[in-house]
Design brief:
globular, 338 residues, 17 strands, Phosphatase 2c, domain 1, 2 domains, six-stranded antiparallel β-sheet, 7 helices
């Protein structure tokens, strides 16, 4: 049976989507859920309300398909935005995919398909994957507009990241917005190696900084945090957003912050073992290889996400003993039975 809601509250979110193949995580303290070959786990940090949300949907799109995603909210209403995106983005993606298919959007030239390759240069995405790419871009735009139209919800300085992985048979499409991250665990010789599937979209990236500056936004770090580049309004020292793309954050939408995802493609092979999505609370303290090793050593698929979060929480206390621990959320989707 799937799990909807949080440990503290068992209300149903989007009941039509809550079936035995779907897990939502949206809670304040510790939330977890598991299906046959996957697991989700989210733990509140010490900054206050847990603003993370996560979803895993088996049987998505096609019978052997799957969708998983993590969403890291920020700002006063970040928890509302991440929950909204978690609940509605999966159905928006399917709607956009269906619409594009009907108008025969599969006709794409080789250059547009090549531009989608972000993992390796050997496997070319199919035309169906091109439709998924366009569906991701379109659905993310629609989602951002829907957030802006929400009554009684101020998202001028609130928003969320999003990283979504869509498996359709051997095709893997990943759409990324912000600084949550997706990695792939793949066998090389006798060990599992981590392959980063996404690029963390932060203001420190030259291409991201250029877009922001061209829109009169400012990119600068605080003196007490020289390693963290932030986005500021042209003539005000606010809001100081530490990512370059996000849903919401409408005060910065005219200054280079966009809700257009980077979309990547990977052709799955028999060596590929699992996909891991996690919010930056995990990646701030654990490397890709550390996370992959923790998942591979987990006792079961159902325990994998929890042990990663517990390892990240422990690492936070050791690495930053005086800092507040960030919320940590993880989705593990296994591609082969352990």
């Amino acid at each position: 049976m799937g799990i909807c809601g949080s440990v503290e509250s068992r209300e149903i979110h989007d009941a039509e989507d809550c079936n035995e193949n779907v897990i939502f995580l949206q809670g304040n303290k510790v939330s977890n859920g598991a299906l046959d070959f996957c697991s989700l786990y989210s733990k509140q940090g010490s900054k206050g309300l847990n603003q993370d949300a996560a979803i895993l949907h088996q049987g998505y799109g096609v019978e052997d398909g799957a969708l998983c995603g993590v969403f890291d909210g920020h700002g006063k209403n970040g928890h509302v935005v991440s929950k909204l995106v978690c609940n509605h983005l999966p159905s928006l993606l399917l709607t956009q995919k269906s619409s594009l298919s009907r108008i025969n959007a599969a006709v794409a030239d080789d250059d547009s398909l090549q531009n989608m390759v972000g993992i390796d240069d050997e496997s070319m995405p199919s035309k169906s994957c091109h439709i998924w790419k366009e569906a991701c871009i379109s659905a993310f735009k629609v989602m951002d507009k829907e957030i802006k139209l929400q009554e009684n919800l101020d998202c001028s300085c609130s928003g969320t990241t999003a990283v979504v992985a869509i498996r359709q048979g051997e095709d893997l499409i990943i759409a990324n917005l912000g600084d949550s991250r997706a990695i792939l665990g793949t066998m090389t010789k006798n060990e599992v190696t981590a392959v980063q599937l996404t690029t963390d979209l932060k203001p420190g990236l030259p291409c991201e900084a250029e877009r922001i500056k061209n829109c009169n936004g400012r990119v600068a770090a605080l003196k007490q945090e020289p390693h963290i580049q932030r986005v500021w309004l042209p003539h005000e020292d606010t809001p100081g957003l530490a990512m370059s793309r996000a849903f919401g954050d409408f005060v910065l939408k005219d200054h280079g912050i966009i809700a257009i995802p980077n979309v990547y493609y990977h052709r799955l092979t028999s060596n590929d073992q699992f996909i891991i999505l996690a919010t930056d609370g995990v990646w701030d303290v654990l490397s890709n290889d550390q996370v992959a090793a923790i998942v591979w050593a987990a006792k079961s698929e159902q325990a994998a996400a929890r042990v990663v979060v517990e390892a990240a929480t422990t690492a936070w206390r050791k690495k930053y003993p005086t800092a507040k621990v960030d919320d940590c959320s993880v989705v593990c989707l296994f591609l082969q039975k352990k």
